[in-house]
Amino acid sequence: MTSSKPHLILVNLGTPEAATAPAVRDFLREFLSDPAVIDFPRWFWQPILQGIILRTRPKRVAEAYATIWTPEGSPLRVGTQRMVAAVRERADGRLTVSEAYRYGEPSLETAIRQAAAQHDGPIVILPLFPQRTDSTTGTAFTRAREAAQDMGLTSRLAERLVAPDDHNYVAAMVACWRDAIAQAPAMPDHLVLSYHGIPARYDRNERHVYSRDCEATTRAFLAAIGWPAEKATHAYQSKFGPEKWLTPATADVLEALPGQGVKRVAVITPGFVTDGLETIEEIGEQGRESFLHAGGEVLIRVAGVESHPSFIDALIGSALS
Questions:
Q1: Where are the alpha helices (DSSP H) in the chain?
Q2: Largest CB tally within 10 Å, which of 2, 109, 218, 220?
């Protein structure tokens, strides 16, 4: 029996199936072949990707994944599944829900096909990125539209997002902040809000939507916790390739802060609603090591909002709007 309730598909970026070089190679091949992620001409980019990057990078990235892998699997997948379970419970029958990944399985095609087979109602696509850019929200919506068109389901597709300053989203970040501070040895001297970087050229071409969304989240969060702007730095991480990206770079900020007298820093990553390689390893391990080596004493990493009830309310509210 099919259901006429809305079916919500939560779309995350994706993750390798295992912390091994072959699995990472498969993931990177799909991820870095998306023209929304790397927009160089195919004739130029594919020889670099196939001939250099996919031969050298997977082993190093797999080693990084191995440091964060859990008995249940990838932290990003585990976190996404927890989110799905929390939405299912908190929605109290108002909608049904499943997960999909832009890269990897279950793919958007798989999730949409299964939703259509089991439900007669709207199929709501909600990428898990409150800050909009073509390389995350844009490519997720594009792929969903293509899949729906191929299946004759375009009229049933709905697109939703959590706003970058959504009250419940910000409330979930505040709760995660308070949890982290409560477990810390002392209050931080400084706060870094670290977002995933994109090439500055992409941001210009998209009329600065992404950087403005990130800034909106930063303003809303600082206001919610009553933190002075002069003791906070808005930064961007995970730079890839030689192009100029949005600045300042989180790595540079963490290296410089001890020289400015900052001994204790907290880092929150608002754009990563589920923790993964970029938060646990890049901030929690690499970032901490860099900060301590430069003379800092304590780095407090604030966890992602993931399945916090307030963020789940943000997802449900957006899906049903």
A1: 21-32, 42-48, 54-66, 75-91, 108-118, 139-150, 167-183, 200-205, 209-225, 250-256, 288-293, 309-320
A2: 218
The SS3 call for residue 132 is: coil
Q: What are 64's two structure tokens?
A: 């990084």
- pTM, 2 dp: 0.96
- b/e map of 160-197 (b: 16 or more CB within 10 Å)? bbbbbbbebbbbbbbebbeebeeeeeeebbbbbbbbbb
**Nearest Cα to 9, choosing from 92, 88, 67, 93?**
88
pLDDT in tens, 246-287: 999 999 999 999 999 999 999 999 999 999 999 999 999 999
Among 76, 65, 75, residue whose Cα is nearest residue 25? 65
Two structure tokens written together for 116: 């259509």
Say which CATH architecture domain 167-302 belongs to: 3-Layer(aba) Sandwich (3.40)
- The answer to whether 66 and 19 have CB atoms below 8 angstroms apart is yes
Q: Where do the domains of the chain lie?
A: 21-66, 167-302
CB 196 within 8 A of CB 271: yes
Which burial class, exposed, middle or buried, applies to 260 when counting CB atoms under 10 A from its CB (0-12, 13-18, 19+)? exposed
Angle at the Cα of 91 from the Cα atoms of 115 and 305, rounded to 5 degrees: 95
How many Å apart are CA 190 and CA 88, to the nearest integer?
Answer: 37
Res 2: pLDDT: 67
Query: What radius of gyration do the chain's Cα atoms show?
Result: 20
